């Protein structure tokens, strides 16, 4: 793809020279020679984005872009950001889903960087401001995206950096943390302690112009010889530092688990966030680099374990040496790189807050009650169980009591945020007496509901919330008086009581007890009257009626005046 205005600039310079030479009455041969020299001298400024879709050469000027990694469609090895042409992958920064972007402060005296002598292994850093030395990369932006491939069930992360200066080599580190460093933002100055957790990642991106492909390295933050357990490493060792914690266990990624490129052939178009800081478009040659990494193949997500990375930032190292000073950085941004998803099951009574235990069966793994990801969860102990939480057989119980004002509680919630991809189902048990199932809805991820059963096809990164609502049954009672006026002795009468419920599917049942009351003999209605017996409710739908025993029969007439 070509960018008209840049092409215009590229074409203007020779033309200006041409005019000058023409005025000096040089021959056409000299003019052509000068123009050709100029074209060779500034090829990077001549065009943006090669029409071939490849803007990277491992050696010389021979285009040498790589196709996407197996299971991915991301063009992380073509040295540009545009989707088209799709020769090296149908996805690129322009159309990737889940894109996260970090913007540095403007270059110059206000830019933030790490203080003198900061090394990768030291989590205690100092943020200072000032111009980035011209021999060190002045970062401007970075991009991140991640995905779980439905093709081969691998996790991928895609990373890109941009810089304002045209240095031949690039030594850039992406730090990917499980937890964010609280309060560390673009405006932070002074001391900062980076919140590193065992197993955090450092992706090193080293590129020597003319020296081949970018070298992509991967290191873990290790806190002891055994923490974390790193596949293919018997014990953890520090890569450079003398003691734990440190960055250790470095692996150099290759073409099967990573691809990478720098736009060393020419300028490339950045179509992203034109209204945001540091919009350099087109990006001159050597100011953009990208990589795609198969995290599953790189053993970041060994099968059977869950891990989630929520924060990432980027730094420029002074040289290819790992122990070189780190200088410019772009403050951390939230990311969502995980091989697991979460499922939250919530119980609401209607109205809210009714004290009633509801039971469930599921294929969720056992989980003790507690707080997970700041969500109090575990439900309540099912009848006959000693403790709350999801039991070994997947069963659990929930109770919405205490939530009449809204909100949720440990008692009405089970939440698991470390679930492997797969299919999960949850089914509510029989309605407790006096309650009727009203609704089940699930949000997030891919799920379906059928009656009281939720079926969830969980992919990494999915956050599924299913809410069960059960209505408390209520009913109203009305009485039809057979004869409201005076009756003659032995003129038998009986009344009818009608009960109307709020559930069409639940016909009211049971018995109605009738009381005879009146002005004399039976006692006033205000004191309850005389119990004359019961009638049994019978009906259909939400309505049932019962008829009282007869009174004032010939065998037992009421006395006159009663
Ligand atoms: Ca690309
Ligand atoms: Ca900075
Ligand atoms: Ca900068």
Structural commentary:
6% of the residues lie in helices and 37% in strands. It is mainly β and 562 residues long. Strand 23 and strand 24 form a beta hairpin. Mean pLDDT is 88; it is low at 1-46. The site of one calcium ion has 7 residues, from loops.
Spell out the blueprint of helices and strands.
Layout: H1 4-23, H2 28-41, E1 100-103, E2 112-114, E3 124-129, E4 139-148, E5 155-163, E6 170-177, E7 190-193, E8 201-207, E9 215-222, E10 246-252, E11 258-262, E12 288-294, E13 308-317, E14 326-338, E15 340-350, E16 357-362, E17 370-372, E18 375-377, E19 396-399, E20 413-420, E21 422-428, E22 435-443, E23 446-450, E24 453-458, E25 463-472, E26 475-480, E27 496-501, E28 511-516, E29 530-536, E30 538-540, E31 543-547
Parallel strand pairs: 15-25
Antiparallel strand pairs: 1-4, 2-3, 3-7, 4-5, 5-12, 6-8, 6-13, 8-9, 9-10, 11-12, 13-14, 15-20, 16-19, 16-21, 17-18, 21-24, 22-25, 23-24, 26-27, 27-31, 28-29, 30-31
The structure holds calcium ion (3 copies).
């Amino acid at each position: 793809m070509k960018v008209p205005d840049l092409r215009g600039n590229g074409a203007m310079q020779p033309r200006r020279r041409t005019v000058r030479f023409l005025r000096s009455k040089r021959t056409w041969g000299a003019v052509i020679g000068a123009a050709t020299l100029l074209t060779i001298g500034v090829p990077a400024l001549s065009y943006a984005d090669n029409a071939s879709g490849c803007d990277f050469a491992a050696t010389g000027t021979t285009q040498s872009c790589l196709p996407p990694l197996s299971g991915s469609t991301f063009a992380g090895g073509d040295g540009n950001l545009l989707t088209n042409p799709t020769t090296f992958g149908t996805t690129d920064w322009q159309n990737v889903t889940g894109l996260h972007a970090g913007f540095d402060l403007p270059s110059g005296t206000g830019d933030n960087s790490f203080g003198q002598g900061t090394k990768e292994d030291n989590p205690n850093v100092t943020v200072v401001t000032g111009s980035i030395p011209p021999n060190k990369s002045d970062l401007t932006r970075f991009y991140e995206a991640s995905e779980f491939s439905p093709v081969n069930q691998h996790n991928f992360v895609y990373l890109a950096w941009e810089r304002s200066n045209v240095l031949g080599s690039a030594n850039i580190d992406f730090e990917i943390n499980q937890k964010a460093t609280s309060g560390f933002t673009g405006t932070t100055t002074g001391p900062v302690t980076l919140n590193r957790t065992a197993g955090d990642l450092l992706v090193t991106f080293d590129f020597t112009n003319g020296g081949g492909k970018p070298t992509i390295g991967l290191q873990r933050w290790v806190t002891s010889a055994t923490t974390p357990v790193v596949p293919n490493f018997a014990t953890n060792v520090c890569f450079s530092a003398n003691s734990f914690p440190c960055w250790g266990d470095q692996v150099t990624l290759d073409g099967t688990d990573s691809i990478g490129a720098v736009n060393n052939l020419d300028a490339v178009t950045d179509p992203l966030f034109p209204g945001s800081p540091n919009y350099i478009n087109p990006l001159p040659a050597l100011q953009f680099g990208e990589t795609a990494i198969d995290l599953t193949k790189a053993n970041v997500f060994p099968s059977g374990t869950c891990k989630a990375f929520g924060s990432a930032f980027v730094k420029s190292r002074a040289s290819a040496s790992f122990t070189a000073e780190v200088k410019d950085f772009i403050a951390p941004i939230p990311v969502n790189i995980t091989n697991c998803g979460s499922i939250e099951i919530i119980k609401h009574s209607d109205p809210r807050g009714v004290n009633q235990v509801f039971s469930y069966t599921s294929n969720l793994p056992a989980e003790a009650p507690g707080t997970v990801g700041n969500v109090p969860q575990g439900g309540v102990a099912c009848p006959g169980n000693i403790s709350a939480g999801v039991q070994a057989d997947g069963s659990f119980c929930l109770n919405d009591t205490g939530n009449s004002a809204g909100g949720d509680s440990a008692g009405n919630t089970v939440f698991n945020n470390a679930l492997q991809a797969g299919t999960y189902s949850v089914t509510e048990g029989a309605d407790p007496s006096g309650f009727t199932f009203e609704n089940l809805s699930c949000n997030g991820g891919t799920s379906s509901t059928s009656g009281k059963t939720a079926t969830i096809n969980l992919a990494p990164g999915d956050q599924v919330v299913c809410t069960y609502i059960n209505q408390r049954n209520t009913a109203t009672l009305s009485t039809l008086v057979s004869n409201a006026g005076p009756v003659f002795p032995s003129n038998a009468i009986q009344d009818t009581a009608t009960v109307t419920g709020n559930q069409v599917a639940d016909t009211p049942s049971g018995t109605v007890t009738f009381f005879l009351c009146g002005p004399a003999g039976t006692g006033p209605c205000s004191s309850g009257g005389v119990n004359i017996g019961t009638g049994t409710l019978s009906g259909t739908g939400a309505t049932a009626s019962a008829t009282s025993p007869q009174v004032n029969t010939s065998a037992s007439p009421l006395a006159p005046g009663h």
